[in-house]
Give the backbone structure.
Amino acid sequence: MRPKVNKEKDLYNNMDVNNISEYQLRKFNNLWQNIQSNVTYYNNLVKDNTVPKNINSFEDFITLPITERSFANKYMRDLTDKSKAPDTWGTTGGSTGNPLQFPSWDSETEDCEPSVWYSRDFYDIKRSDRMFRLWGHSHTLGTGLSKYKSIFMYKIGLPLIGFKRFSAYDLSDEKLKVAAEEIIKFKPKYIIGYSKALNMLAKANEEKKNDFHKLKLKAVIGAAEGFEKKEDKDYISEVFGCPVALQYAAMETKYLAHTHPDGGYRVLWRNNLIECVDEEGSPSQSGRILVTSLYPRAFPLIRYEVGDIITDTYKNIGSVYSFKEIKGRDNDYLMIDKDTPIHSESITHAIKFSEKVTAYQIRYTEDFIYTIYLKSSSQLNENDRKEIKDRLAKIDQRLSEIKVHQADNLKQTIAGKTKWLMKE
């Protein structure tokens, strides 16, 4: 990996920012020739002369339509590259309760991995460094032989190569104290976790500050969501005695950007052309983020709206190469009782195994009685509900008591948003 990372560093360090757009459009135009042949949706747009066959300028590029997640969910078949069968299917998570199922090729991870280590190198993190990950454990929610293979890999295989994973589903103080003991015993060089889970980890183990400092961690890296407030980042840094960073990625986009010790986010523009636009889709210094992938994908991302807001951008023509912060990444918690918060991703992981479910929402009463409402492409039977409840029980037995109903529509906020967790 080191030669690939060094090549990546050379590109980022030696490219004049005024040439980034030209470099990206050249890469995209090469991909575009295959996409318009192999992806039905774009093939039809070219045939109708709605978009150009060749992208020769940024003006040409922005004639391509913006793709929203709801559109992708509905028309994934027409947005998939037919030249090669998918190797796997992924499912997004997050706070919307509207998971996107998308195809991918194994080569996509290979194309993006150098960017991961280039970003971590900002904090002197090497691929050989030991890592502790406070994350979801969806592999434990499966069934059959594959489940036990996954558990063996995570419990025994990965620690042998310096990678230890601890479940972030149950974020009670009791479990977080166990996590701290594991960290001290494992002696990692860096920690990665859901951002809010990391803050809760620090609060539950403030008395272990000296033990954490002795580890001489290179960084604690938050992911999947932002911190609630700037003070959280400073607090985590104080408890663990190291810099606190944030990686910006999504299941369907892979790595997009990473914070830098000098401040703000650096965009990984070798693989991603990022735009910032206002509500009308016009270029803006702060606004909606659009992502276009610059490497071959089973589900090509072209002006794909992630659903987040970025601020104070620096651009070359219309291409963003750095920005100040991200807004909109906010995952809530479901409280089983006053001492046991359950992270939103655990619910997503339990539900995403069902191919029928297209969206979900959990509603609760004032006395914290929960009901799951599922939107589905077909009628859910009792076995479908049982499978979901069985997986919820593996996270916490009390979750299996939640009622599961099928619904035609999910509840929305006054602003027209569909949140995964809402009060009745």
Remarks:
- Residues 20-38 form the longest helix (19 residues).
